[in-house]
Amino acid sequence: MVLGLFGSFLQFGGIERANRLAGAVLTEMARERGQPCQLFSLNEAPGTHVVAMDGHPYSVRGFGRNKLRFVARAMGLAPRVRLAYLAHPSLAPVGLLLRLANPALRYWVATWGFEVWQPAPPISRWALHLAAGVTAPSRFTLEHLLKTQGLDRAKASLLPLGLEAGFGDSDPNHREVSLPSSSGLILTVARLHEPDKGVDTVIRALPKVLRAVPQAAYVVVGNGDQRAYLQRLAQETGVADKVHLVGQQEEQELKNYYQRADVFVMPSRQEGFGIVFLEAMAFGKPVVGAEFGGIPDIVVDGV
């Protein structure tokens, strides 16, 4: 059996998009090997959720943030599991428990970014060292696995993220999103729970942008507790009429925003990779990012 354990799966975000793609890969790999596959997501609503990836449906079971049931169900399957994929370093200790129940089991751990840029708790670090392998999406995160976590280079793999086939395609019959009609549309797509996504930097720079491009407008797709602060900042900076915080959007609306944008900007100070840059590139948009973290693996200056 192949077992995939995820923190979140269906929500808005780059990690969730990567998790859905990983779920499809695990399902197909198990099918090719003639093995069953079980996918669990800690944070999804309880029950079975069907996900379609490139026209191929598969299912994931949600546990409504109930950690005890999540771990207990995984442990119940441990004797049958040959390969486990743990989609976040915080889940790595579950790998230790699975190995205790089934010493023949091999588990892999996916890391993303800042969660391994500082020394991990001892139990998590031990779990990383006992894994069959650990993946990092960027050279920056890979180096932290080796230096900060002390991981054996033979166990660490660079595994850049990707998009599902056809992401850059849109439904021509889908309704258009409501946006300023002028050119000069600047777009950011980000969860607004984290203060380091750089949205505040763009808002502060907007007066200078407007002096050069008076018709420019700034659209931010995403929700979070930073939203009220960013609205106040736009007011204080005198650009409130040019800043549009449109909240979280469904997939097709998100693609419409990418289509309408003239440039994608996210000067984030915490990206382990930054899959939104790939999303913008899929629509042929120029992108601007900070020279930090995993962003330079994707965004090449002047290209």
The description of the largest β-sheet is: 8 strands, mixed
Structural class category: alpha/beta
Helix content: 25-40%
CATH topological fold name of the largest domain:
Rossmann fold
CATH architectural designation of the largest domain: 3-Layer(aba) Sandwich
CATH superfamily of the largest domain: Glycogen Phosphorylase B
How would you describe the shape? globular
Classify the beta-strand content into a percent band: 15-25%
What is the CATH class name of the largest domain?
Answer: Alpha Beta
Number of domains: 2
What's the helix and strand layout?
Elements: E1 2-6, H1 14-32, E2 37-41, E3 47-53, E4 56-62, H2 67-77, E5 83-86, H3 92-101, E6 106-110, H4 122-130, E7 133-136, H5 139-147, E8 156-158, E9 185-189, H6 199-212, E10 217-221, H7 227-237, E11 243-247, H8 251-260, E12 263-266, H9 275-282, E13 287-289
Parallel strand pairs: 1-2, 1-5, 2-4, 5-6, 6-7, 7-8, 9-10, 9-12, 10-11, 12-13
Antiparallel strand pairs: 3-4
